[in-house]
User: Fold these one by one.
Assistant:
Number 1:
Amino acid sequence: MFRKLVVALSLATVVTNSVFAQNREYALVIHGGAGAMGSLEDDPEKSVIYYAALDSALMIGNDMLAQGIAGAQVVMAVVNYLENNPLFNAGKGATCTIDGQFELDAAIMEGKDLSAGAVAGVKTVKNPINAAYAVKTNSKHVMLSGQGADQFAAEQELELVENMHFATPKTMAWIEELKEKSKKNGTVGCVVYDTEGNLVAGTSTGGMFKKQWGRVGDAPVIGAGTYADNASCGVSCTGHGEYFIRHAVAFNLCARNKYLGEPVQEAADYIIKTELNTDAGNGGLIAIDKEGNVAMSYNSKGMFRGYLIKDKGNDQPEKGVAIGEKMVIWNP
Ligand code: ASP
């Protein structure tokens, strides 16, 4: 049962080493939320649980991308895995509203045609990212919210659950206490550069702990928490949503890349570490540009994250997972 951890590279080295983008066959980057979890990487027992979950999500994506499956299907499968994993603040494991309920937000966007779908405040959809995809694909709208979104998901024959399905022992304790301090596990997100060169971004979240019922965060707001455009980048964000909405973070990154020609990592760092670098605006993002370059940036103590890149001519993809600064190669 021993797993071998090789602390291999700092994040900066990983990104610098990954610039041969004209050779990129596919790429995948994920996040599991940002926050004050930086010290978790020093706890070997707790951190391995997160590394294993992040790596499993990467490998689900890798298997599908290697078969040439389209980016949107890959994003949904990866996000479904993270939504069903109670470690993260999305689907089961989602944080709760001030009145002890679960209201979930999700969005998905495709860079090839700017098609997008989002749901906000759904209470019964087991996998909100699937409802977002259904809005994108089977409705003429971009975002549905509340009861209308739940009803639409039912009509689409998506799997429905009782609201308390999303509870875990941890969130039940929060509901009972509803402590003053902000609590969250970690939103999830995935960006894919598929074998066709299409960029797809998806984000799914329970939102912020003790949020006002009816509150909508950045995740389902196209251009704030989620965006994809094959002319620039795919982006998924995590953090204090109100600030990500005000700064239109996901679109802002794409605009910096597209109009200023800023490399994706530079644009991500500028927005996260300069524009958003306040206590209130903490969080991070993951992104991939139109050449398959991967970027990850955060201004909090940590961000659960992982990347996987496969270049043409290489047998194996390169990958890594991280919580705080250390990028870890995970070999189960
Ligand atoms: N961005 C999410 C929201 O504000 C929360 C998070 O990413 O942790 O709803």
Number 2:
Amino acid sequence: MNSPVRKAVFPVAGLGTRFLPATKAVPKELLPVVDRPLIQYAVEEAVAAGVDTMVFVVSPGKESILDHFRRDEGLESKLEQGGKDALLARVRAILPEGVRAEVAIQDQPLGLGHAVLCAREHVPADEHFAVILPDDMVLDPGRGALAQLVAVHEATGGGVIGLEAIDPSLTASYGIAEVEETPSGHRRITSLVEKPAPEEAPSNLGIVGRYVLDGRIFDTLATIGEGAGGEIQLTDGIARFMGDHPVYACPLEGVRYDCGSRLGMLKANIDYALEVDSLRDELLAHLGHVLGRTG
Ligand code: G1P
């Protein structure tokens, strides 16, 4: 089955406890990296990969994520009257023309596999779809992380998971994949384990939150039951599904940031700011001062 990837699912129902109290009233996915919220980077990455329908899986109380993607005519007319054309263009580009936002509700925190399952009504079973975890940012000077996965999907027709080599002592924080090269030169995933202890991990290839999945996986997700941490794990669903339907690895190009952690979020803010021409020189000068103080 080789279909264009038109839909992306964003599981954004989590509580964001690691960022409390910042996330008491503001969803984690609306925290900014430089001047855009995490979720906007994720949507831009999906648009760059050819996706035209964004499905946000939210929990009750996190509906403000959707406000970010709704048109605000009052704000737009103020910017227009004030001649702030560049800002107006940036606000209008939040959800580009022809791109739709849809909502699914996850009313119980039963795990990532369950969150994806909640999007089932939004994704046709005969299409491949993307899953993006907005916490995982990938700074890729090229086409963007999801576009890298879509290219592998187009070449193989199969499912695809984004991977990166991680420190072997950290396997218990990731889904871990074992990979073998096929005769045609693709990298097929042969086993997947969610958060194994280092001595049980089949490799040090960790799952980054980017997936292209076959729409038929929902039937599997509906039946797998609890896995690691007592949650319904996406990794377990893919592991079972890939027995009959091949899933391929996409070693990601670019730098990955774990924006689910404070340190990852800080690093992302610095590195993304260094990509902005109007910020780079002063930020570098400041970092130089900081290093002088600590060095
Ligand atoms: C989830 C997945 C895990 C993956 C990780 C990437 O875990 O279950 O397989 O490696 O995202 O960020 P979480 O970080 O939500 O515990």
Number 3:
Amino acid sequence: MEIIELVFATNNQNKVNEIRSILQTPFHVITLKDAGIDIDIPEPHATLEANASEKSSTIHRITNMNCFSEDTGLEVFSLNGEPGVKSARYAGEGRNFQDNINLLIEKLKGKPDRTAQFRTVVSLIWNNQEFLFTGICKGRIIEIQKGSEGFGYDPVFVPDGSDKSFAEMTMDEKNKFSHRKKAVVQLIEFLKQKVL
Ligand code: ITT
């Protein structure tokens, strides 16, 4: 069977772990580390789509290989879609996941509507052409964080259809609901039609 190599344009190891649990043989995910690339990929734009494109095109220019990136945001409805595209730096540059969670919980105090969604946009560059795929997971933000698996906002996000937070789930359980999994399944279907 032909192996399909794809460079994954990310510096987030948690994303690499999740993506590798989804993109299995015949796909082979090459990380930036594997490829010997050590750069801070720019994310200057106002939308997940534009940032995802920026990341994949930056890495495509360097490697000239088929590659993909993803940009993910947590969109909270009563906060007008915040933290959204700013999810990684919500509490400011150099802040960590816990600071971001604390700020989110603070901003939601007293708000009855705690519905939210994770949205992932994958940008694939295949044979020099770009294709976008989107995955959404709807759920809600809980008042007190729970669990220690996963990363980012996982301890405060409970997906619809579960009463566990993402941080209380194994990776396989999270994949049953996850935004990232839904976007990557579309990428897989697309590539299967192209090459398998
Ligand atoms: P790259 O740009 O290098 O891929 P990043 O961490 O900067 O990595 P994003 O720009 O997509 O990634 O930032 C999204 C942030 O949203 C991320 O740092 C987490 O805090 C959060 N996030 C993304 N996916 C998540 C998930 O599945 N569960 C919980 N939080 C998540």
Number 4:
Amino acid sequence: MKFDLKATFTFSNDISSIKKEIENFVSNYSKVIIEKDKSVKIENIKIQKNQLSLNVTSAGVFRPHNALLQMKNSMSQEFGKKHKLGVREIVIENYEIQFALEKKPLKKVTIPFADVKSKDKLATISLKNVDEEFLQRNYIDRMISLVKEKVENQYYEGKGEFWKLIWESGAKKPVWTKDPTEEMVKLGWLKQGPTKGKWFYRPQITAIMKTMEKIAVEEVLKPLGFQEIIESNIVPFDVWLKTGHLEGMPGEFYYIAEPATRDAEKWVRFVDLTKITKEVPFDELKKNVSIPNAGICYAQCPVIYWSFKGKTISEKSLPVLVYDNTAISGRYESGGRHGIERVDEFHRIEPVYIGTREQLLKLREKLLDRYKHVFNKIFELEWRMAWVTPWYMTQAGKIGDTSSQDTGTIDFEAYMPYRGDRKKSEWLEFQNLSILGDKYIKAFNIKAQKSELWSGCSGVGLERWTTAFLAQKGLDPNKWPAGFRKYLKELPKGIEFL
Ligand code: ATP
Ligand code: ZN
Ligand code: MG
């Protein structure tokens, strides 16, 4: 890396009278640095009124921006006592950083706060007028990482996710080839919800979904010792900042805004306008709500991890096995919506596990066993498992370790006969199972007495279980597999409409 910066220190008072002293200080300071990194040069030292400006260049490991704050503190100490002088502010007027990229950018990279140029595998970012807060907050190092990540991502774009088959049930003859959602709408079991991607589940389909829930709990989670918890459905941004969701999928959240006030006075005009116009006075509303500071649950695990934040878990409690079956997931699926299988609001059970690597690898086998039992013996489903790399692993440097398969995600996919040929059509991911190493453990600073912890989760989508089952087995309970009929052999009679 090559660094070239021009910085100005502004002192609390005129320093021209102690010019020599300051020059000596800077020259001593640079000697100390050069001992650590020979490539560093501090030059063009100029002192004028209350300002000291200088150039720092380096071609090694030393990052000049990290030294400026240190230098400020040392100067304040040195001259504070002697001359009652402090450094009021540091400004980097110009800063050029040149660094090597792993690959040549395929197209121009842009980032906030800086100009990015590249030539072959060399990138240069130029910043102007960088202030102290910027330095303190470590933005510069993150900007360098972001350029690297963006170039890396250019090579993954359009390549699709990594996908490798690990198990398949073999073909099963479907009972029918219709789209279950369409048929259930016709039968009145289901009604499109009041807004996009939501559904109203009438008694028949509700009974089926509730059976799915029961099977997941009774056949998978309880036998493995999972304990139920109830979490909040509203996720504050700081939780998503830690898990990476905020930078991962900002376009998929349902954002939540709080009222700016509950003072009735402030809402009078809103109420009056509503009464007169019988419409929502959005312009008035804007004045009375705050900018969103949270979102509706996207997946349940982030808040579960948050609940362990900063805790030391007793060895006796390992592995921690918990699940949430209450929070409803909201995702803005936009053009991808279809039936009850890709919706904006869905019901999911999410088991989360925290334990040692060995505990989690063993647990994965047990979970796979129980899941197989459900899908093979109870649903008699045609399905398969594939090793995939999800988004949170695809960011630069975090690619799922597909060689050892210790960490990473398994997708469970079902054949959907209504979509056509089993070889050519897209199968439906109806759940997944991940082991994520220490990613979230570190993010939330979770510890054990002795053990090093890993974590993972599994997303059991109840709408997905339901459509996968119904797409293959039809809507007639008499034709359902015996294992499922043990749980549900008759549907509620529902409501008749004229
Ligand atoms: P997809 O690739 O289908 O969008 P995903 O990778 O976004 O799925 P995950 O974030 O891994 O899904 O969520 C885990 C589980 O949550 C899925 O296996 C599925 O059961 C369920 N799920 C996710 N998105 C939806 C949705 N829009 N509608 C219904 N269920 C969903
Ligand atoms: Zn999760
Ligand atoms: Mg998705």
